[in-house]
Amino acid sequence: MKTAIVIGAGIGGIAAALRLSKKGYQVTIFEANDYPGGKLSAFSLGNYRFDAGPSLFTMPQYVTELFELHDEVSTNFFTYQKKKIACQYFWEDQTHITAYADQKLFLEEIQNKLGVKSSILKKYLKRAQRKFDLTAPLFLEQSLHKLKSFLTTKTLKALLHLNLYEINQNLHSVNARQLKEPHLVQMYDRYATYNGSSPYQTPGIMTLVQHLEQEYGTFVPEGGMEQIALSLFELAKRKGITFHLGEKVEEILLEEKKAVGVKTQSQFLNADIVLSNMDVFPTYKKLLKGVATPERILSQERSSSAVIFYWGIQKKFDQLDLHNIFFSEDYKAEFDAIFNQKTPSDDFTVYVNITSKDVPSDAPQGGENWFVMINTPADYGQDWGQIKRELREKTIDKLNRILKVDLRPLIQEEAVLTPPLIQQKTSSHLGALYGSSSNDKMAAFLRHPNFTPKIKNLYFCGGSVHPGGGIPLCLLSAKIATDLIPVATNDSI
Asked: Are residues 126 and 207 in the same domain?
């Protein structure tokens, strides 16, 4: 039987393993941590449970299709609910917007609170949908590094509408021109952070990101975000995929420019296919001995990272929901600080995720579990001890002002995650959450492909390679990578 090894049991790695298993491979996954899921993990502080990493769940069909691929009923493993409120937005001037999932209610909210006519926002969202519909088949669903990807009717159709994509304008300028109202512009500028970029640099085509949230909605898994990874982990084990948790891969074995297996801390294991879900930077720098590295790709600007506070709060806040954004007053200065000065801004945006709103067991009665995230640069040697102390005090002060509360005595439990710890726990180079940034207009083409022409039978998936970071794109990267791998017949390799 043909064999495959997957390095890393993040969601992309598990998804790739499931697809390879369906293709007839006997699959083994090695994971350095003693738990599956990568960034999609969880932990407890006292009586509070926290999702450690990604907190936004969209496009659930990319998860459920993995169960369907294996002729399983997804609800036997994994259930989720659609949110009626996508996000609560707050500003220092006491403006407060509820982003309803129902478009009619949302348009009414924007018109009533901001005075923006529904027709303006409808036109904007329709344009974003058009971008997505045209470009998704090219940029998100197939390799950009295979000639055959460009020789399709869908691709040619996409290329005929280049002006629509607004690639030569940045996201902010597009939003400012089309939406005008400052609060609304800032709301839609923030979608640049979904892939760790700046709205003042990332191209205008990125308006298609908000289409995904508006069109398909946001969801909450029963049991929290870790259930996405754990449900796929259980499915994988059920389908005979072998997991070696707590066993770190030290080298990808090569023979005559061909991947033939891996060396771990305790064994050598041969395989017909090797697929790395590990960040592409350490994959080259640590696992591929004596191989010339693609320096142009690996030296690209890193995405943003984050400092995350996990707070067990002894109070319930009725004005908050699962997702909550507290905006800075000077968005441009915030991103200038992150990407140019390599430091958090003095005035920054705060994201608060509270899963206990939908999963009551995540916090004791009368309390809430707060995941409090501030966007920061990746780790370039900054004094993170000092930074996290300053961010903590400024964050509390900001939330106190806007919510008119005194948070300090309400914090019962606390933990902190910084970029160096993100790198340590997930092998993400410099702690960048999304690999390279998407600030360059050609970013989609500059990401590392899902294969390398220099080494046969070696493939890549995950947030650091095409098509990018975030749960939906990681799942798509697994599909793109495994679509390049032949079905496991005796003469197919």
From this structure: yes
Q: Which domain holds residue 114?
A: 106-215
Q: Mind listing the pLDDT tens digit for each residue in 229-278?
A: 999 999 999 999 999 999 999 999 999 999 999 999 999 999 999 999 99
CB 280 within 8 A of CB 294: no
- CATH at 67: 3.50.50.60
CA–CA separation, 8 vs 129, rounded Å?
34
Among the listed residues 409, 453, 367, the one whose alpha carbon sits nearest the alpha carbon of residue 48: 367
The CA R_g of the chain, rounded to the nearest whole Å, is 22
* Residues 66 and 39 placed together within one structural domain of the fold: yes
Q: Is residue 416 part of a domain?
A: no
- Final residue before a domain boundary, out of 177, 197, 215: 215
The pTM assigned to this predicted structure is 0.92
Tokens 């966007």 belong to residue: 375
In one-letter notation, the amino acid at residue 72 is E
Bridge partners (DSSP) of residue 48 are: 45
Q: Which residue has the tokens 């004005």?
A: 319
Q: Are residues 201 and 230 in the same domain?
A: no
Tokens 């590094």, residue? 145
Q: Which of 369, 421, 303 is nearest to 33 (CA)?
A: 421
Provide the 3-class DSSP secondary structure of residue 295: helix
Q: Which of 485, 414, 340, 491 is CA-nearest to residue 6? A: 485
Beta-bridge mates of residue 157: none
Q: What would the pLDDT profile of 369-385 be if each residue is shown by its tens digit?
A: 999 999 999 999 999 99
366, part of any domain = no
Compute the distance between CA of residue 425 and CA of residue 160 in angstroms, rounded to an integer.
44
CA distance 85 to 196: 23
Residue 24 within any structural domain of the chain: yes
Domain count, the chain: 2
Q: What is the DSSP letter of 278?
A: S
Domain stops at, among 180, 215, 250: 215
Cα-Cα-Cα-Cα torsion 460, 461, 465, 471, nearest 10 degrees, comes to -170
Whether residues 188 and 207 fall in one domain? yes
Would you list the DSSP string of 190-256?
Answer: GGGGGGT--TTTSBGGGGHHHHHHHHH--EEETT-THHHHHHHHHHHHHTT-EEEET--EEEEEESS
Cβ contact 124:107 at 8 Å = no
